[in-house]
Design goal:
The chain is of the alpha/beta class. The chain has one domain: 4-Layer Sandwich (Metallo-beta-lactamase, Chain A). It has a six-stranded mixed β-sheet, with helices on one face. A hairpin with a 4-residue loop joins strand 2 and strand 3. The longest helix has 15 residues.
Length: 191
């Protein structure tokens, strides 16, 4: 089993959108869709993928701003997120510990509140891949609105992300990919 990840950097905030594809079935999910991208759509069609899910890590416009467009283009796709605000009237709300499937790939949903109360990350164990949204970046963490939210976020990252195998590749909402090893050992917010 193999999971392929294709990265697109979009929006004026340079937010990342990902296409996560199960190589065995051609089933794919979009992760965080802040902006419509014709280049992304054309790539999906050229690759012959079937978009069956749209995972929204949190309800900020640079991550969910184009949900309506993508659900109209891929009406078979289920929108998944941590609150109804991810896509009002369309979101299947997931909670911590939920399991979902991208084709044959089993993925685990983890709650990492702080940047927003409903913030989720998506972990695909067999591929060693985690989509972290704005919870964790290379060398940084997402902004929070209070000291309590900051404490909750750092604790959730320590317990739920840094406990994963060190080789897991982290695909963040902004900036370059990183790994659990790098962030757990060198991210200044934890040392």
């Amino acid at each position: 089993m193999s999971l392929y990840v294709r990265h697109f950097r979009l929006t004026c905030e340079l937010a990342n959108t990902y296409v996560a594809c199960d190589g065995d079935t051609g089933v794919a999910w979009l992760v965080d869709v802040g902006e419509m991208s014709q280049r992304l759509i054309e790539w999906i069609h050229r690759a012959g993928l079937r978009i069956e899910g749209i995972f929204i890590t949190h309800a900020h416009y640079d991550h969910n701003g184009a949900v309506e467009t993508y659900t109209s283009l891929f009406p078979q796709a289920t929108v998944l997120g941590g609150s109804e605000a991810c896509a009002p009237g369309k979101t299947t709300v997931l909670s911590d510990g939920a399991t979902v499937h991208i084709g044959n790939q089993k993925a685990l949903v983890l709650s990492v509140p702080g940047h927003t109360p409903e913030h989720l990350v998506l972990y695909v164990p067999s591929a060693g891949v985690l989509f972290s949204g704005d919870a964790l970046f290379a060398g940084s963490v997402g902004g929070t609105s209070s000291e309590k939210a900051r404490t909750d976020q750092l604790e959730a990252i320590r317990s739920k992300i840094f406990s994963l195998p060190p080789h897991v590749v982290i695909y963040p909402g902004h900036g370059p990919p990183t790994t659990v090893r790098i962030e757990s050992q060198a991210n200044p917010f934890f040392h």
